[in-house]
Give the backbone structure.
Amino acid sequence: MPLGDGTLRTSIAAYHVDFNSSEQVPQRAIDSGIIGRLGFLDNDLGGSTTRIGVVSNWTQNGNMPLLVLAYAHHYRFKLYSNFTYLLDDPVNGDEFEQADRRTVIGGRVTKAFKAGADAMSIEFLLGTEGRYDFIPEVGLYRTAARARLSTVRQDDVKQGSGAIFGEAPLHPTDRLRVILGARGDVYNFDVTSDLAVNSGTDTATIFSPKATVAWTPVDAVELYANYGRGFHSNDARGTSITIDPNNGHAADRVAPLVRGEGYEGGVRLRPLNGLSITASGWWLDLQSELLFVGDGGTTEPQGPSRRKGVEFGAFYQPAPWLALDAEYTFSKGRLTELPRDVNRIPGAIERVIAGGIVVQRGGFTGSLRLRHFGSVALIEDNSVRSQPTTVVNSRLAYGFGRYEIAASIFNLLNSKDAEIDYFYASRLPGEPAGGVEDTNLKPVEPRQIRKRCAGALQGLKFHGMS
């Protein structure tokens, strides 16, 4: 709706879900016939989640607008899992609950500016944003049949963050484009734990510059290079931990903010009308991958690391009603402070192939898409690897006016591959007390059809799926 010299838009969304789910299961349980490929070993797994949110944004009229965004949401989450079955507790089992209850408020303000005369003018963007999380309960509990037996760790966390940022695109010549940007962030963590020695506060700041250069020597060719620093924040509980709540041993704290530095260079080609080809190479260094392990209530080192790779992509539209695309990615990830024979990053994707075709005629739209993930190392010495995964999905839709009816077929070829793979020790009934190391997998869902209806009536949108 109009407000002042701009427009205000507000949306409200809410949902609640109770769910039962299967998780990864040991390969040996399938091979021995204890369960089928789609079976499970613990029927208590699953949980519930609730989210209620409000988002408002105000956009100023004009060519250099001021944009203001504000949001708030309330979130509750419970998840029951059992990865090792009878390894840690042969009487009650190893089932556990992760709980999270929080309220989040935040906002963002950006303003576009223009400086200088028309021939020498420069447009740039300045902005600021902030977020605060009130988390009165984030906990890990040992359970049986979804009933709590004991508390591993329970915390009250308050976490705030703020940032200022800017970006300026420059055009030294008609064929050269430069974009310079920078961002400064500050985070504050305040943890009150049920174990007093694991309580504490921490504050961290970080500066992240970014730059892009793109040059078009001829009309059909563009060369580009990107550089940027970024970061990820670790779990607040990891910044104050002193004692491992699982075993009472001393635990190392993690850095609140972990820097990453990346480089990318490539070329974009348009040799034919409707055909676009991209080739690029990239490099990413992370200072650390120290992460809080929510399943165990502690932290473990996972870095520093280096990832590098190449990507090739193509998009071709030979006719207005037909589009084809394909992409190939190869990457290599290593933990840089470990010996070469034990420095693989478990689960790091190495090869991905994706492609698809879309046909549109009249009100009909049909598509077919393929995704292939190559084998990956499951442990650092590369002695155990996953099997490749290939899935084909399809979709057929018909639109008339404001309405659409669609049907999607997931896993069209009924692939029997695994969706995820891990390698660790678990214990099934009758197995040794120390458990058995094995590949633990979650299979791709079997072929299924989903129908969807969507539309709008006098500004009211609706959709349904089955």
